[in-house]
Predict the 3D structure of the following.
Amino acid sequence: QVQLVESGGGLVQAGGSLRLSCAASGRTFSSNAMGWFRQAPGKEREFLAAIRRDGISTYADPVKGRFTISRDNAKNTLYLQMNSLKPEDTAVYYCAATGSWDLTRATRATMYDYWGRGAQVTVSS
């Protein structure tokens, strides 16, 4: 079992930055790939980025060049650095973990075994 807790959300102005953290506990060695998703009110959950334990990562097109995913395996923590934030980035952001190493499957929410409860990010204009 893996438990995930997001932190670092909040309110920022357009053009600003935030760094989200996701602290993992439990059987963290099973989190071979971890990812970030977001969900705006009334919208479907959207894939943002995923990273393997060895540091290989993949990004969704809307956040390429603005967001950076990273992980510190020694600290059992996943990060999402978000720069040049836009009002359309406003959403609840979720971290997730899976035992799979396959990043070609990591864009699908159904591939993840564990989820955090979400962190609100609000970007004002």
